[in-house]
Specification:
It contains 7 helices and no strands. The protein has 214 residues and is mainly α. Helix 2 (50-84) packs antiparallel against helix 7 (183-213) and helix 4 packs antiparallel against helix 6 (151-177). The longest helix is centred in the N-terminal third of the chain and has 43 residues, at 2-44. The protein is elongated, with a radius of gyration of 20 Å.
Length: 214
């Protein structure tokens, strides 16, 4: 653990800022599009309580899908470049541990970044949904949209996002560390990480859905 503490907190903070900076606009745009469609559909149908569905299921999924497109490939490319540049081998030669000094800070940063992105998606989606339902049908529709909504729903969604962050970071780091060869292999690892990250997100959502329904 001593290897992790030396400078690793600063690395966690740096990675957290990078992950947020790279994904804020994309998450906001995706949340706006999905929330608009959900709010319009609920206004036309008899379904109620869409706000609860949004914060528990859809907002974390939006954040995770954006993360799958950006986080997994980014980490795979970054660590892959370090691998082919012999930086990781040099770290091991000097007695360092890549898992504690390179992987762990990135996983922790992702664990913290994904809930922040999900919270942004929550805010964007609820604001749009509130405006559309209140504007189209007045107070009753707004109350119906919030039917059953509670703080626990928000916390559940943020927990889902945290798990997604861990999964995405683990996939990206594993594929990055596995790179062998030259710069071309780094690009291939990043491409593989994109697909693998997407599958990891969908598999995690399915698993969580099965656990919740059990």
């Amino acid at each position: 653990m001593s290897g992790f503490h030396r400078g690793s907190l600063a690395l966690v903070a740096e990675q957290w800022r990078r992950l947020l900076g790279a994904s804020l606009a994309a998450v906001a745009a995706a949340a706006a599009l999905v929330a608009t469609g959900l709010a319009l559909a609920s206004a036309r149908a008899a379904d109620v309580g869409w706000a609860r569905l949004w914060v528990r299921e859809l907002a974390p999924l939006v954040a995770a899908l954006v993360g799958a497109a950006r986080l997994g490939p980014g980490l795979a490319g970054e660590l892959g470049a370090m691998r082919v540049g012999d930086q990781i081998d040099a770290l091991v030669t000097l007695g360092g541990d890549p898992r504690s000094q390179l992987v762990a800070p990135r996983v922790i940063a992702a664990l913290a970044a994904l809930p922040a992105l999900a919270a942004l998606a929550d805010a964007v989606g609820l604001a749009i949904g509130w405006g559309l339902t209140a504007g189209r049908a007045g107070g009753p529709a707004t109350r119906a949209a919030l039917d059953g909504f509670a703080r626990g729903d928000v916390l559940s969604g943020l927990a889902r996002a945290s798990l997604s962050g861990v999964a995405l970071a683990a996939v990206g780091c594993a594929l990055g560390l596995a790179v062998r060869g030259g710069a071309r292999e780094v690009g291939r690892a990043a491409a593989r990480a994109g697909g693998a990250s997407l599958l990891a997100v969908l598999a995690l959502q399915l698993l969580l859905g099965l656990v919740a329904s059990a």
